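tmp note - Exopolyphosphatase/guanosine-5'-triphosphate, 3'-diphosphate pyrophosphatase
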Amino acid sequence: MFAAVDLGSNSFRLHIGKYEDDGIRVIKSARDPIRLAAGIDKSGNLTQQACQSAIDSLTRFRAILRDYPLTAVRVVATNTLRVAKNAADLLPELERAIGYPVEIISGEEEGRLIYMGVAGVLADAGEERMVIDIGGGSTEVIRGLGEHIRHVESFGIGTVNQSLAFFPDGAITTAAFERAIISARSHVEDAVHLFSFDPAEVNVYGSSGTMRAIADTIRRNGMGDGRVSLPSLADLMQRLIDFGHVSQIALDGMKPDRAGVIMGGLAVLIGFMQEFRIEVITPVEAGLRMGVMWDLQLRATKADRRDRSVEEFARRFHVDAARAHGVADTARGFFDLLKPATDSYARYLYWSALLHETGLVVSPTGYHKHSAYMIANADLPGFTTREQRLMSTLILGQKGNLKKISEMLADVDFAKAVLALRLAVMFRHAHITLDLDKVRVKLKSRIDLEIRRDYIKEHPSISFWFQKEQEWWAGIGVDFAVKVI
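out:
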């Protein structure tokens, strides 16, 4: 059983689902329409009131989560927490409220998860498709074939910011709609060529709550041809203009708590359909939260998207695969010898070792620094920002001065992962293949390494690397003893 919590710009939502019969069945949902994006002040910070609303919402969600035997929980935050200047200050409070880590995901990762959710409920594995998700603060457009993603773009325009910009006092006019639609088109016009397709050969789906609300309103009020098409959307727009003000809207299917942002979402939808020349969009009951649960299910069954991300990234930057895998296997061997309390760092160590030389594409001088920067800032589908920072720190610590990561070394298991990677890199420099019968290593109050004399004789340069390593650890007050046996 899995739980997905989506900290959106418009609403906070929760899904609890269970994998059965090759699908995920949602057994519990919750929603708080807290309008987080509307709580950003002129300086770009979330107001105290907005922060408290977010904390209160997650406190309520935590009470719901406690009632279910959950295998895994993932909490993801989207555009508003990506852009709010004080998001880093709020994050620890949100994590205390929900009881789980909160991940601020990139727009590209958001698009990937949205597409996974949609693909999980569509049967045709060979279908050419596009998915559009209009959120409160951003809109994601994803092009794919079946379950395979071809291109993802995230645009910083959504229902809340568009409604605040063009319908700030609730008045609904033709001129306001025209300006809002032109604004929406301007956000996407330079990216249209990236999604070039024949509308007759590609099915377009809408995955957001806004899309489903618009579709439901069109259907229940007999507008246009009843589909999410430009004629139907034009009919809905005119109806809203005729009402004149948000407070006067009276349409079946349009809930009062959504009416305030529906104009912005409608303008974005019309603008995007015009730019992409889309004739019809099919709403689908799936999206980010379903994608998060599918991702958790895949991780549980070892089909982890992160493995593929690492492989693709290494290939893109021409990493020597044989050497990288050699270092990764050696690092894993040393990590096992060090007997960590848990295996929580094992996979990150392995992935970091596979990517530790990506910076060579920039320069062989200080390549570990270049590698660390690349991993911290890259778009690695499946990885959270927190995970990428962790790997970046491991990679930065693969050689040289340890003072740059000394704070992280207070975590003994992390220190063991750093030591394992450093030893693996040293062994590669000395052209040594690790033989577990010839090496012993422990890390407690100090580092104790035992190595067979024949190893030293066969690979004399390792003595030089050990001497340098002793100096680096001494620089942070840790003794490194080497015993030749």
